[in-house]
Structures are given as structure tokens and as C-alpha cells.
Design goal:
With 419 residues, this protein is mostly beta strands. The chain contains no helices and 32 strands.
Length: 419
């Protein structure tokens, strides 16, 4: 028909829905980009065909809403099954940090199918860690400083992280339940903290740690099964003994000096009492001396018997030092010199009359002599008699002489300590 009108009819778009599903449903920090988001498109009930031939725009925001910072986005084509699968990719050596992420999938629509949007909040949980405490020595001697290398490492699946993504932050240390005042200690880029705990006292010490976590890793603390146990042993000391004299007369004071010096690395000064004994380390106790702040103990004796005397010093150790072997020194004790003066009650005397011969013995050290004096006819060698020395140091022998001249000699016979 000439001059007729034409009519163009446009079919309305079919409404769509987008369903957004994550696989896996949740991840732990360190799984990198090992998860996907699937946007499944569907037309309204009763419609025919699948929404295909277009694309879905995926956006991932930090936080739980689109108000957060955009982390990554990408446009993904819808496949023949009406599904667009998105595997978020970050730069090399980067992973999604722990926290929440708002994911939005926007279907662009076609001439046949209308646009639609789906959202979800995805959570990346903090990773867990293992720790290791490695001491420089688990059996120390007093004075040796303890250093512990603390290594915090991620558990699987975070074990393949680049160095820059290893655990960071600090660790706190406790010794026998008491916090180490110099902490907490910062991990280096390898997840290691080299902790100096100084020199500990003698005994067994329990070392505990707490990793304080960071933005991506949970805290972790040692347990009775995983704590570090360190033993500090007693140190050794050099032990010596000297006498003030090598030779002394009986009654002369002799000072014995025992010296204890710590063997490095110990710096503490030994304490306690040194026992001085004669003859052997288990011999007669001569006395004791307290160890002063310089590690020295002394004992002064003036009653050692005559002869070559060996004196031992014995120390039983203390809370910081083991007992060293006994040490000894010798001193020769000589008899005290004496002088004797002879006199008589009468000289000259009448024949047949008793004459008292008097011998006065004096010791050079002023002590009172004991023992006896022998009176001898010096011309003939005949012994006239022997008399005991009394308290003042005098011996008296009464002798009757006949007519003549007599040369008399008095011999002090000495005793254990006097010559």
C-alpha cells in the first residue's frame, strides 16, 4: 500500500540476578591469590536463554564497604554457562593482608539482559606462626652471657611468603616468670630477634616468650612443652696459699694468706670461710679465716711446733663456685736460742762445805725455759749432776768440793722448743 506507516516493536530487557560466591569460603594470610570469586548470572523466572555475551566488572575494596580503598579490579567475560570467574592478582611477592575485603561484581548487561550487581564481604584471617628459641649454649658457666636467637616463622600455607611478608613486630621474654626489662625485642626482616639476656645466676632457668603478633599474624606464646630451659653451672676459682715466712723460730708469728680468684668468665668474688689444717687436708684444724671482698682469707699463728710444718688451706666452695682442691705451703719452725749464766753461792768456799751452783737460763724470745741443766767438771768431763729449771728459769745443784780449783760448766739441755 502506497503511503502506509511502519511500526517497530522493541522487546523489554529480561531482568537478571548475579550471585557472587567465593572459593574457598575463607583463607588465611599467606594463601596469596589462591582464591576466586564466581559471579553466576540468571534471568528472571520464565525467561529463556542465559545472560551471556557480556562481562562482569569485579572490584575489591579494603574494608567492609565500597568506601574503602580500591585494591584491585578487572573485567571478566561471561562464559557460555553464564558465569564469570575472577582470580584477583596482585603485584609479585604481594598477598592480601589479613582483614576484610568488600567485593562487588557488576554485570554490564546486554540488549536482552539487564545489568545486575552482587556484593560480598570476604575475610582473610591472620596467619599463625611457629617459633624457635636457640641459645648460644644451653649449659652455661657462671659469668657466661646467654644469647637466644628467636625465630618466628609462618605456618603453612604462609610458608612460601617472600621475605618482605614474613612475620614482623616484637617478642617479649620472661625468665623464671619475670619479664625481661630490656624487652620487647624487635624482629629483623628475616623474622629473627637476637636477644641478649646477660649473665644469669647459678641454677636452672626457664625461658618463655610471647610473639606479640602484627597486622597479619596472630600472637603465640610458649607452653611448658615448648619453653627453653637453660642451666648455669658453678664457676671455678684459682686457689693459692702463701706464708709470710719460710723459716721462723718457735713463737714467732707466721701469717698464712689464702687467695681465691674467679676463673673467667666469672667475675663474682668467692665467699665463705677457709679452714687451715696442719699435716694434710684432713689434718688438725689450726684455725679459720673469713674471705674478704678481695677473695683473701688470712690466719696468723705463733704456736706451730718446731720442725718442718706443712699447712693446708681448705675451702668448701659457695653458691657460685665449686670447691677447688686443697692447697698447701711449708714453713720451717726452728728452736728458740737460749743463753745460760752460771754462778755459785760461794767462791771461794771451804773444803767440805756445800756450794749451790746456779744456772740462769734465758730464752731469746722472752719465754720461760723448762727442762733441766747439766753441771759438768769442764776439766775432767765428769758430770756433777742435773737439776730441773724452775719457773724463773733457774736450775740449782748443791755440790760439796774438796780442796782445789774447779772449772765448772752448765749445759742447758733444752726442750721441744728451746735449744
Amino acid at each position: 500500500m502506497i503511503g502506509g506507516n511502519s511500526l517497530v516493536l522493541t522487546a523489554p530487557q529480561t531482568n537478571t540476578t548475579t550471585t557472587l560466591v567465593a572459593n574457598p569460603l575463607s583463607v588465611v594470610y599467606g594463601q596469596g591469590t589462591g582464591f576466586t570469586f564466581s559471579a553466576t548470572l540468571a534471568g528472571e523466572p520464565g525467561s529463556t536463554g542465559l545472560p551471556t555475551g557480556a562481562s562482569v566488572f569485579f572490584e575489591v575494596f579494603a574494608g567492609n564497604s565500597a568506601a574503602g580503598t580500591l585494591v584491585v579490579s578487572e573485567t571478566v567475560a561471561v562464559n557460555a554457562s553464564g558465569v564469570a570467574v575472577y582470580n584477583p592478582q596482585l603485584d609479585a611477592n604481594e598477598v592480601f593482608g589479613a582483614g576484610q575485603y568488600f567485593v562487588r561484581a557488576s554485570y554490564a548487561g546486554t540488549a536482552t539482559f539487564s545489568p545486575s550487581i552482587a556484593t560480598t564481604v570476604y575475610t582473610v584471617a591472620k596467619g599463625n606462626t611457629n617459633f624457635q628459641m636457640t641459645p648460644n649454649n644451653a649449659s652455661l658457666v657462671l659469668g657466661e652471657e646467654l644469647t637466644v636467637a628467636v625465630t618466628i616463622s609462618p605456618r603453612t600455607p604462609a610458608g612460601q611468603l617472600a621475605t618482605s611478608l614474613l612475620p614482623s613486630g616484637t617478642v617479649s621474654m620472661r625468665i623464671n616468670g619475670v619479664n625481661v626489662a630490656t624487652g620487647p625485642f624487635t624482629l629483623n626482616s628475616d623474622g629473627v630477634a637476637n636477644v641478649s639476656l646477660g649473665a644469669l645466676p647459678v641454677g636452672t632457668h626457664v625461658i618463655d616468650l610471647t610473639y606479640n603478633g602484627d597486622t597479619n599474624y596472630n600472637t603465640v606464646a610458649s607452653t611448658p612443652a615448648s619453653r627453653l630451659v637453660v642451666t648455669v653451672r658453678k664457676a671455678s676459682a684459682n686457689f693459692s696459699l702463701e706464708s709470710s715466712l719460710q723459716t721462723a723460730t718457735f713463737g714467732e708469728p707466721v701469717t698464712f694468706t689464702a687467695t681465691l680468684n674467679p676463673v673467667a668468665p666469672a667475675t663474682a668474688i668467692p665467699s665463705g670461710v677457709v679452714v687451715f689444717r696442719r699435716g694434710s687436708a684432713a689434718g688438725v684444724v689450726l684455725g679459720t679465716g673469713s674471705i674478704n671482698s678481695n677473695g683473701v682469707a688470712t690466719l696468723t699463728l705463733s704456736n706451730l711446733p718446731v720442725g718442718n710444718q706443712t699447712v693446708f688451706a681448705v675451702w668448701a666452695g659457695d653458691t657460685n663456685f665449686v670447691a677447688p682442691p686443697a692447697v698447701s705451703t711449708s714453713v720451717n719452725i726452728t728452736k728458740v736460742g737460749t743463753s745460760t749464766v752460771l754462778s755459785s753461792s760461794a767462791n771461794p768456799s771451804n773444803p767440805g762445805t756445800s756450794v749451790a751452783l746456779r744456772a740462769d737460763v734465758t730464752a731469746s724470745n722472752g719465754s720461760t725455759p723448762t727442762g733441766s741443766v747439766r753441771f759438768v767438771n769442764a776439766d775432767t768431763g765428769a758430770i756433777l749432776g742435773t737439776a730441773s729449771v724452775n719457773a724463773p728459769g733457774r736450775a740449782v745443784l748443791n755440790v760439796t768440793f774438796q780442796t782445789g780449783t774447779y772449772n765448772i760448766r752448765a749445759e742447758y739441755l733444752g726442750n721441744a722448743n728451746l735449744s
